[in-house]
Amino acid sequence: VTLVESGGGSVQAGGSLTLSCQASGVLFRATSMAWWRQAPGEEREFVAQITWDRDSTAYGDSAKGRFTISRDNAKNMVYLQMNALKPEDTAVYYCNAKERGVRGETWGRGTRVTVSS
Hints:
Blueprint (H helix, E strand, L loop, with lengths): L1 E5 L2 E4 L4 E8 L6 E8 L6 E6 L6 E3 L7 E6 L4 E6 L8 E9 L6 E2 L3 E6 L1
């Protein structure tokens, strides 16, 4: 299983970014996908998840109301639309995959987001 994130970059506070994650080597429609992030000196933090069944979504407190996770099963892609970005959103954002019935999970290498004030 391989996950490749893209879409990170630098943006001013209040701006928007959309992160993408391309999955391969996995039965994508049976895989729950998530975004996590890690700021310098901090622990990895849950951002958002979208399940494989019924596309149920969940968000970490920092993402609620500003971020939206979505997926395109035809393209094996998951997205994170981030609006109203704040300097505290600065972090490396990681894509995560958990395939139904498969032990373990897979992480991407991350994409860096920097939000300046």
